[in-house]
Write a structure and sequence with these properties.
The protein is an all-alpha fold and about 200 residues long. The protein contains 8 helices and no strands. It is rod-shaped.
Length: about 200
């Protein structure tokens, strides 16, 4: 909360010449004409509920255009980071689908011991797609917070974090698609072959 108070106080003080900011402060019985030190001291004295109301009004009414521009930049960066993660996941998946699985399927009929070893590795890789999806999402969110702090240093980590949460980055779709491809191209094929052999 202290970081948020500091951030909002600095932004209010930097905009004391703005009539909308002056009106906002007067609504909380703070006299902007008395100067920066007075405004900072009065903001520090505001109870938390009033301070949060002031903060909300500041961000939704006065700084809305600036915040929307920052959110748009974060969304563009989010798309770029997700695309990178998708490409990396598909590169991994292609190797599994085009090389490792065909070799394992060939071993299924010729060498069951070697097949079982290959199967364990393939299953580990496939499970890794799902785990990587969550980890990649976490990393993307962390990168976006860092990026947001670079483009909007006047906003605190909590505020930038809230903007990132609004983007709802929950997973990398290529990971789910790669797992589905593994399932269709390996698990189903092996199940059918085992049924046919029985």
């Amino acid at each position: 909360m202290r970081e948020l108070r500091n951030s909002v106080t600095k932004r209010v003080i930097s905009q004391l010449n703005n009539v909308a900011v002056q009106d906002l402060l007067q609504g909380f019985h703070i006299a902007p004409h008395r100067g920066r030190e007075h405004v900072a001291a009065q903001l520090a004295k505001l109870p938390q509920d009033q301070f949060l109301t002031l903060c909300s009004t500041l961000t939704t009414d006065i700084e809305a255009d600036r915040i929307q521009a920052h959110k748009a930049a974060l969304k563009a960066e989010s798309c770029r980071l997700k695309a990178e993660a998708e490409r990396a996941t598909w590169a991994e998946a292609q190797e599994l689908l085009e090389t490792t699985i065909p070799i394992a399927l060939d071993l299924f009929e010729r060498d069951q011991a070697a097949f079982r070893k290959a199967k364990v590795e393939i299953e580990r890789s496939a499970e890794g797609f799902l785990a990587n999806s969550r980890e990649q999402s976490r990393q993307i969110r962390a990168q976006l917070v860092r990026y947001g702090r670079q483009i909007a240093p006047e906003y605190c980590r909590q505020e930038v974090g809230d903007w990132v949460k609004e983007l709802q980055i929950v997973g990398i779709s290529a990971s789910a698609e790669a797992y589905k491809a593994y399932y269709n191209n390996f698990v189903r094929v092996i199940s059918k072959a085992e049924l046919a052999a029985a």
